[in-house]
Amino acid sequence: MAKRNSFKLSLLSGTFSDDWEDLANSSSRRQLVETVVLGSVSVSILRWLASIAAIYLLILDRTNWHTNILTGG
C-alpha cells in the first residue's frame, strides 16, 4: 500500500513541477516583453523631461534670473 501511495505522489509532483515550469516559462517571456516595453517608455519620458529641464535652465541662465533676484531689480 505504501508503494502505491508513493507512486501517486511521484506522479502528482511530476505534473505539478511540469505545470510550474510551463507557467514560469510563459510568464517570464511575457514579463520580459512588458519590461522592455515599459522600460523603453520610461526612458523616453525621462529623456524628454531632462531635455525640457535643460532648456528651461538655459533660458533662466540667459535672463540672468539669479542676478535679478539678488539685486531686486
TrEMBL record:
InterPro entries registered for this protein in UniProt: COR413
Pfam families referenced in this protein's UniProt entry, alphabetically: WCOR413
Membrane topology: Multi-pass membrane protein
Location in or out of the cell: Membrane
Transmembrane segments: 36-59
UniProt KW Transmembrane keyword: yes
Main location: membrane
Alphabetical UniProt keywords: Membrane, Transmembrane, Transmembrane helix
Gene Ontology cellular component annotations, sorted alphabetically: membrane
Family to which this protein belongs: Belongs to the Cold-regulated 413 protein family.
Protein's name in the database: Uncharacterized protein
Organism listed in the record: Ceratopteris richardii (Triangle waterfern)
